[in-house]
Design goal:
43% of the residues lie in helices and 11% in strands. The protein is an alpha/beta fold. It has an eight-stranded parallel barrel with strand order 1-2-3-4-5-6-7-8, surrounded by six helices. α2 crosses α3 and α5 packs parallel to α6.
Amino acid sequence: MSGDLSGDVNSGLDGILRRQASRQVHGIAAVLLPYTPAGVVDWAGFEAHLRRTHDAGLHCAVNMDTGFGDLLSRDERSRVLEVARGALGPGVPLYAGAFGDPDPAQDPRPAYGQSLQDIARFGAAPVIVQCPAMQGMAAAEKAQLYRDVVAEAPGDALAFELSPRFAPHGEIWDDETFARLLEIPGLVGAKHSSLDRTLELARLASRERARPEFRIYTGNDLAIDMVLYGSDYLLGLATFAPDRFAERDRLLEKGDPDFLMLNDALQHLGNVGFRAPIPAYKHAAAQFLHLCGRVDSDAIHPNAPRRPGSERILLLDCAVRLGLVSDVEQTRAERVLPYLDGGPAQ
């Protein structure tokens, strides 16, 4: 085939993207909680990263998996909420993980209630994190638990469907459970983190049939183009580069074909950061942010899994592709090579 097809290609892409642009994507970043090498939270770095995320145009979610919510005590999660609200200011949308009792033998409702009280105190919207007790429940019993928890929420809430590949308390719902959750008025959306594009498409189809206004927030860091199929997003990957995610969303809203190139570059970062073992993506996030000069250290929660220093070789390539490094050789010399032999260490 001969001839210049660029005009036809651009015209076709423009039509596809403009059809998608009729819906404004709601983007939420699950914000990393950075640490210092001494093993304590870097509160100044956290505040700066929250503001950077908000200023880019994304909403923030704290005490999620990316923020080590399951490793924090109630008091620590409350402190995270306090700092987040102070950094963002009053009235700015904020989302926060709500946790039940980690003991599967205990009724999780009291712990959820306490968590909801803390979240309400700082004007945040709860994201109901799964707990071990849910895993032994039938669909009707599980849905009733969600009803009971949502009834105590100060406003609308989101559910969180998390693959056990991320954390052992996670669980993928069966179809009956999801159908029952769609019937809970105060539950206005769900974060879907199965890492299974086909299952997420099925969730979207069920949503369209039963309750079109219910939002599905993709948590699939390996398929971030799910926004093209009707999902919004609440992504840990968005904490790596919130400004680039916001830029991507604006390109989509305009129907600009440049959306595709930026989405591909972000997906490259997701494929690197979310390789097995998946829970170590949080350290990859800290490494990437440090490599890009956005946090002072790649330290993370002391009990969280880590990546080797050699990860920075791949992450530098991702940062260059996203235009986040101004001097590649200096960054390589200062923020890659010294880490290849295990130091500077946390």
